[in-house]
Amino acid sequence: MMVAELQVAAAGPEWLPVAAEVAQRLGLECLPEPVDRPAKVASPALLVLVSGEGVSLQATGKKAPGPVRVDWVHGRSGHRRRQGGAELLVKAIGVGRASRPLRILDATAGLGEDALVLAGFDCELMLFERSPVIAELLADGMARAAQEPALSDRLARMQLERGDATRWLADHPEAVDVVYLDPMFPEKRNSAAVRKEMQLARSVVGDDGDAAVLLETGLTAARHRVVVKRPRRADPLPGPEPATSVEGRSSRFDVYSRRALP
């Protein structure tokens, strides 16, 4: 589901051919002239902007925040990768308890930050992203990251699938060790607490209203467990009760166990 009006633009004339290719893949209009100052653009409210730094989601108008792109080298994900981090995610997935690297399906990949962390533990990742725009950002970021020596091994263990994971999960019983779900959280009243990346992503994809269906099909496809990220105070997804939860300050990971990890 695409919520906000979007167009594709190039940050400079040299990027117009690439922007036209991106627009064709996404089925969107490509602006004929480059956009070097998004703050001066009144409409549309969002651009898929192509530049030398990659493909990004860029708000327009006065006081618009900077671009959102998948940057696993210098961005927030790069810092998270270098510092380790994500202990709660790793614990919920069960990486430390498994006797071999796990095969994980990330059914709501988003900008891929969690998958990048798990790939650092030698896990094999399938990433599904059904929003064409977010998938375009993710594919662009993965292609750039694969050229970095420090990341090439991780990227070799990551496979992106553009589309909805629901059908694949239903058609492949017990095909992966773990299914991971991070559905779009219900919108917080205090929008200042929501990261820029999440605000722009929500404006493109909206909420994941079928998260319970993903859980149901995920329990079919997972040999060992399904892990669902939720706001810490939110109810579990409709369906079976989680076997356990791993809680942090603002979020938690509900674990639905099928059998012991390998």
TrEMBL record:
Residues reported in the UniProt entry to bind S-adenosyl-L-methionine: E129, R130, D182
Reactions the enzyme catalyzes: guanosine(1516) in 16S rRNA + S-adenosyl-L-methionine = N(2)-methylguanosine(1516) in 16S rRNA + S-adenosyl-L-homocysteine + H(+)
Keywords: Cytoplasm, Methyltransferase, rRNA processing, S-adenosyl-L-methionine, Transferase
Secreted keyword on record: no
Disordered as annotated region, ranges: 230-262
SUPFAM superfamilies noted in UniProt: S-adenosyl-L-methionine-dependent methyltransferases (SSF53335)
Locations listed in the record: Cytoplasm
UniProt xrefs under Gene3D superfamilies: Vaccinia Virus protein VP39
EC number of the protein: 2.1.1.242
Composition skew (Basic and acidic residues), residue ranges: 249-262
Entry protein name: Ribosomal RNA small subunit methyltransferase J
Highest rank taxon of the organism: Bacteria
Species name: Halovibrio salipaludis
Signal peptide residue numbers: none
UniProt family annotation: Belongs to the methyltransferase superfamily. RsmJ family.
The protein's enzyme class: transferase
Native organism taxonomy: Bacteria, Pseudomonadati, Pseudomonadota, Gammaproteobacteria, Oceanospirillales
